Amino acid sequence: MTHYDPSLEKCVIGALCINPQAMEKIATFLKPEDFEIKACSVLYGTMLDKFIHSEPIDVALLPQCLVDMMENPQKYIAECMIEAPTTRNVVLHAHVVHDAANERRLRDDVYEIFDSSENDVIATSIMQKCQDFLEDKISRTSTMFDVMNEACDNLSSDVGIRIDTGFPRLDGILKGIYGGNLVIIGARPGVGKSAFGLDLAESAARKGHKAVYFSLEMLRDELAERYICKRGNIPLDHIIDKTMTDDEVMRFAQSCAELSQLPIIINDSPDVTVQQIRAQARIIPDAEIIFVDHIGLLRASGKYQNRNLELGAISRELKNLATELRIPIVVLAQLNRGKEENQEPQLNDLRDSGELEQNASKVIFLWKLDVENNIRGCKVAKNRRGKTGTVQMNFEGEYQRFVERSEDVESYNSRKDRVVYDDL
User: Fold this and answer.
1) Is-contact 211 163, C-beta < 8 A?
2) DSSP states of 350-364
3) Other Cβ atoms closer than 10 A to 372
4) Between vectors from CA 135 to CA 130 and to CA 137, what angle results, nearest 5°?
5) Any bridge partners for residue 186, and if so which?
6) How far is CA 126 from CA 105, 130, 305, 407, in A?
7) pLDDT in tens, 184-233
C-alpha cells in the first residue's frame, strides 16, 4: 500500500465546510466508510445526507453530530478548515481518500480469505477481490466527450493557472508553469541559480501568486539583502559592508516597504524534509507556487543505500506533492562536477540522479556563455508542455538580478567577434 496521510481526510472535510458546493463533484464516489478518522466519517456522512435530500449544509449546525464523540466539536471543525490548504484540491484529495480506503479493504479481504478459506478456493476468492478493486480504479476513466468538455471548461475558467517567469522570450518557450509541474533549474555553483530562483519567485508574487520559498542554503536575512539590492539598485557589497550613501539608504527603505507587500513566505530551515514541506504547504492558505533551494540539501524521510536513490525518491515525492496540491514546485539543482560553468549543460549532467530528469516536467539550465561580459545562457532542455530552446541573459552580479537579452544564443555563437573561454 502506498504511503497515506490520514490528515488528508481533515482537508476534505475542511474544504467541504468552506465550499459545500464541492459536494456535487465527490458525492458520486466518496463514501463515509472511506474515512479512517471516525469524526471525519461522521461529519462527511451528515453532509452527504444533507446533499442527497437537497438540504443546505450549515457549518454552524455540523458540530451537533459530534457532541457524543468529543468535548469541543466546534474546535475540531475549525481545525479541519485550517488544515485545508485550498478548496480547489478537494476532488483530488477525495480520490486519494477513496483509493486508500479501497486499498485497505483489499488488504483486509485478502487476509480474511487466507484465514478462513480452504486452499482450493483461496486463489479464486483473491482473484474476485482483485477484479472488484480494479473495476473501481477503471471507473475513474473518462470518455473523450468528458475529456473535451473539461478542456473547454478549463479554457474559460481559472483552472490550471499559468505562472510566467517574467522573462518574455523565456516564457515564449516554456508556455507557462502550471499546477502539478515539477520544474528543475540546474547550474554549477556560482552561475546564479539562487538569484534566478528569487527572480522567478518575485515575478510570480508581483502578479498576485502566493509563493513559498524554502531556502536550505541561505538565511532569510541573506535573501532579504539580495532582494533589496536588486529592487533598490544598491550594490550588494554596500549593504553587507554597511557603506551605503544617503541616497542608497533612502532606496533601501523604499525597497523594504515595497517588498514587504509581496505575498512571499520564506522558510530558511537548513534541515527541512519533503514531509515538512508537505505539512507547511498545507497550512499556508492559497499557496500557488513552491520554490526549493536546493534539492541537494533536502533529505528523504526514509533510509536509502546511496544518495542517488535518495534523490530519486525526493524528486518523486516532490512531483507527487505538486500533483496533490495542484501547484507547481520549482527546484534548484546542482550539476555534476565534470561540467564546467562555461559549458552548455545536458540533461545527463543533473547531479547524482537520472530520476530528476525523468520526474521533472520542465528542466532549465544556466551556464556562463560569456564570462567577461557576464552573459548567461538559459536553456529549456525539457518541456512537456511546450518547446525547447535557449535565450541569453545578462547577469548583473552586483545587483543579483538577471536581465533578458534580445539576441538568441545561436546568433551569438555565430558572431565572429565573440570571445570563447575554454580554459575556465
Assistant:
1) no
2) BSS-THHHHH-SEEE
3) 8
4) 100
5) 333, 365
6) 12, 6, 34, 64
7) 998 888 888 888 999 999 999 999 898 999 988 888 888 888 888 888 88
